[in-house]
Amino acid sequence: MFINRLNQQSYSEGYIHRLMIYLGISARIRRKKVNRKRSKPDYVKENVLARDFSAAKPNEKWLTDVTEFSISNDSRKLYLSPIMDLYDNSIVEYELSFRNSNHFVFKMFDRAVANNPSAKPIFHSDRGFSYTGPAFKHKIENAEMTQSMSRVGKCIDNGPMEGFFGTLKTEMFYGRKFDSLEDLKDKIKMYIHFYNNKRFQKKLGCLAPMEYRNQTSYCA
């Protein structure tokens, strides 16, 4: 509760740093991203987004990607595929799976379209196999969205999405122990709910994404 109130006050970063030292609080440091191997795409799209991460209204620009998790007591991996709305950095939809597949990504995308039928955003991703095949191209066209892709090896082209992964893993994954991947899956769901509804962001005037969105008169 104290931290929540503190986040909504106008204190300098220097003051916060001194207070953290006094309270014995330290920040979690993000680990360096490990680059994944890319498959040869069936087709690619230009980087329409062009690192313009601003959005004047909801559902104007969506970002997506897939990240993976592994723990020492389970040989499997857990994959997370979310969609971020650049208007307020909210996670508008996500899917968790023990297998990285087209079905996993398509399921998330189809649900996002069903829940936001009027949304026609720029849809930006990297050049992963799920986004560069004819099936996904067909889905994008049916949804009347504009597809955009990062350039090869340029993670910064999808910077806010990469930033979300870094924040999530730093705050609830790195340095923590989980009984199983099922336990981790539940914790990720809890974190995304917290992130959307209670985690304040400096960019949003120290409001949580859904608080910021609810202040506007725009309709999703």
Short summary of the structure?
By secondary structure, the chain is of the alpha/beta class.
The number of distinct structural domains comes to: 1
Q: Report the sheet-strand fraction.
A: 5-15%
- CATH class value: Alpha Beta
Helix % is 25-40%
So how many helices? 7
SSE arrangement, N to C: HHEEEEHEHEHHH
Q: What Rg do the Cα atoms give?
A: 18 Å
Q: Stretches where pLDDT falls below 50 for ≥5 residues?
A: none
Q: What is the CATH superfamily?
A: Ribonuclease H-like superfamily/Ribonuclease H
Oligomer: single chain
Which structural category fits the helices and strands? alpha/beta
The main pleated sheet reads as: 6 strands, mixed
**How many DSSP E strands?**
6
- Please tell me what the overall shape is: globular
* CATH architecture level-2 label: 2-Layer Sandwich
Distance between the termini: 31 Å
Structural notes for this entry:
The chain is α/β, with parallel strands linked by helices and 220 residues long. The protein has one domain: Ribonuclease H-like superfamily/Ribonuclease H (Nucleotidyltransferase, domain 5, 2-Layer Sandwich). 35% of the residues lie in helices and 14% in strands. It has seven helices and six strands; from the N terminus they run H-H-E-E-E-E-H-E-H-E-H-H-H. It has helices spanning 2-7, 13-23, 102-115, 134-142, 159-172, 181-197, 209-214, and strands spanning 61-64, 67-69, 78-85, 90-97, 122-125, 146-149. Strands 1, 2, 3, 4, 5 and 6 form a six-stranded mixed β-sheet that branches. A hairpin with an 8-residue loop joins strand 2 (67-69) and strand 3 (78-85). It is globular, with a radius of gyration of 18 Å. The mean pLDDT is 88.
